[in-house]
Design brief:
Layout lengths: L16 H4 L5 H15 L1 H5 L12 H13 L5 H10 L1 H7 L11 H12 L2 H15 L7 E10 L7 E3 L32 E3 L6 E3 L8 E11 L5 E8 L4 H14 L6 E5 L6 H9 L2 E5 L12 H4 L2 H9 L3 H10 L11 H28 L1
Parallel strand pairs: 1-7, 7-8
Antiparallel strand pairs: 1-5, 2-3, 4-5, 5-6
Helix pairs in contact: 2-8, 2-14, 8-14
Length: 368
């Protein structure tokens, strides 16, 4: 018997939003770990708001919404709010009841300064590391470090000379004020002579010889070797030796208060005398790839003859998987924020989200 198409559906419904999410859905594990991390950060979140005044949107909800933006590669906060209007899975994860109104997208901009001042991204990353350590997923002896370029939200056309001596460029007439024509022919653009008017803290840098130079920042990461969990991160202005100095600072933080030594893997870029001597002064064994087949003057047979050195050279390459996830899934191939402080916040927050995804996958594989 054919059922008639209802023209006037019921005006009232009872929706069990908790029951709509399957028990095996991967977001359940991530939600549980996220709630645990935010619960540990409650005191830090409380310090960002006044005791009196109009009640605000809970910062836990805002952070969970931003987490969804990374997980599902939603390109803007406007689209994120649109998804929250009708996506019950997103509402459940954020903590919005079906009848609650979605806040305006500008709420994120208004709260961004609070999140930056409270350094919530780094604290969230450290909470995910603490969870992984409690579960026995983190090695305390073997690590790898590496850096990657994060392209800035600025065009090469925004580069302008910093001094009047270099400002004799004659650009062609502007046919489109929003996208003007710029003629760089015969002009040498360098970081010591030019700055971007869109993002002055970004720097011109190329990934390798023969490749195009782009306005970018430099993001560093430190990975443990047992399961590939990120234990520390750092984003800074892409200046000379910024990768080695940033990674060395992470190693110093790791060794602070420790008496036992650790090993650190790295690519050929870290085969540099100052970096290796600094590692050894911190009781860190540098498992660094040598620059050429003839070997390195500092990483010699005392290190390379051990089996652990060869293992470190294999495992260290997994850190590229982290950078790949950040750029493809985490929308950090070209960051949509300007200024080193904002870019660093979202870089560290993305590293924390990667740890949640990694732990969720490890637990799913263990129970399979």
């Amino acid at each position: 018997m054919r059922r008639e198409d209802p023209k006037n559906p019921s005006a009232f419904y009872f929706i069990d939003i908790e029951g709509m999410v399957p028990a095996t859905h991967p977001l359940r594990k991530i939600r549980s770990m996220t709630d645990q991390a935010l619960a540990e950060m409650k005191w830090d979140l409380d310090q960002l708001y006044q005791e009196n005044g109009r009640p605000c949107i809970p910062p836990e909800m805002l952070l969970r919404a931003l987490l969804l933006q990374y997980l599902f590669s939603i390109r803007s906060e406007r689209l994120l709010m649109e998804q929250l209007e009708y996506n019950m899975l997103f509402r459940w994860f954020v903590g919005l009841a079906p009848q609650e109104r979605v806040w305006d997208h500008s709420t994120f901009s208004k709260n961004r300064k609070r999140f930056l001042d409270g350094d919530l991204a780094r604290k969230f990353l450290l909470e995910t590391v603490r969870q992984a350590t409690t579960k026995g997923l983190v090695s305390d002896e073997h690590f790898s470090v590496d850096g990657t370029l994060v392209e800035a939200w600025a065009s090469l056309k925004s580069l302008k000379p910093m001094s009047k001596e270099n400002s004799d460029r004659r650009d062609p007439p502007h046919q489109d004020p929003g996208n003007p024509s710029v003629d760089f022919r015969g002009e040498t653009r360098r970081n010591d002579t030019h700055r971007s008017t869109t993002d002055p803290e970004s720097r011109l840098i190329r990934k390798g010889k023969g490749m195009q130079a782009k306005l970018s920042y430099l993001g560093n990461a430190m990975m443990e070797h047992r399961n590939g969990i990120v234990v520390d991160g750092d984003l800074r202005i892409a200046e000379n030796n910024a990768e080695r100095s940033g990674c060395l600072e992470m190693l110093q933080r790791k060794q602070e208060g420790r008496s036992a030594g650790i090993t650190v893997g790295g690519d050929k870029w870290f085969d540099e005398a100052k970096f290796i001597r600094a590692c050894r002064s911190l009781k860190i064994v540098p498992h660094i790839a040598v620059k050429d087949q003839r070997g390195s003057k500092l990483v010699d047979g005392r290190t390379t003859r051990h089996k652990g050195y060869r293992v470190s050279l294999i495992i260290r390459k997994r850190i590229e998987e982290i950078f790949g996830w950040l750029k493809e899934q985490g929308r950090l191939r070209r960051v949509r924020f300007r200024g080193a402080a904002k870019v660093n916040w979202f870089y560290l927050f993305a590293l924390g989200i990667y740890n949640l995804v990694r732990m969720s996958n490890l637990e799913a594989a263990a129970s399979a």
